[in-house]
Specification:
27% helix; Aminopeptidase; seven-stranded mixed β-sheet; five-stranded mixed β-sheet; single chain; 33% strand; 187 residues; alpha+beta
């Protein structure tokens, strides 16, 4: 693994990403429907996001994370602006790059007073827990999203984790249950 002093963390909006960076991001996200996405379509689709990039000394991408600002969370009739960590991948796994980027993303968001959560499958929760993040196990089932007049659970993930939630917001997520649901509101 590289020394952390040989790594750089950059935060870019979609318009600041080069075509080559977009190509690398799409390759590493491995979403078949997006494999042929053109750079301008990418920039438009993710316009309410920012990208956190961990690079080596010659600007090769080591790890990628997207922060989605496209929704709010409604709990107990109050809406909370909470960002979502998505598209988080290491270009090479088991080298520590993901953990390094996750730490830097968390620090960056905390310094800007941005609350953020992420979603994961149970099998990945141990990684996030090893990074010191609070896991709300099996809590995705307490989220709902409205689409076409119907309410549904928005993701196939199992758990929610706190990247940068405040103590007050942490408390709200800890109390989610079948009787106390949270609703995702897309802007």
């Amino acid at each position: 693994m590289l020394s952390t002093k040989d790594m750089a963390h950059a935060v870019k909006n979609p318009g600041q990403l080069s075509d080559a960076e977009i190509k690398t991001i799409l390759e590493n996200w491995d979403v078949p429907d997006w494999s042929d996405m053109k750079p301008e379509e990418f920039r438009n689709r993710f316009r309410k996001s920012e990208f956190h990039l961990l690079t080596d000394s010659v600007s090769n991408l080591l790890s990628i994370a997207r922060i989605n600002y496209n929704f709010k969370v409604k709990i107990d009739e109050s809406e909370y602006q909470i960002a979502e960590l998505v598209g988080f991948v290491a270009v090479e796994i088991l080298k520590g790059y993901g953990k390094i980027l996750l730490d830097r993303v968390g620090d960056n968001l905390k310094n800007r007073n941005i609350e953020a959560i992420g979603f994961c499958k149970n099998k990945n929760s141990a990684f996030y827990e090893s990074c010191g993040l609070k896991i709300f196990y099996n809590s995705v089932k307490f989220l709902r999203e409205m689409k076409d007049g119907k309410c549904y659970t928005p993701t196939e993930d199992d758990d929610i984790f706190s990247l940068t939630l405040s103590d007050n917001t942490l408390h709200l997520f800890e109390k989610l249950s079948h009787d106390r649901l949270a609703y995702l509101i897309f802007e």
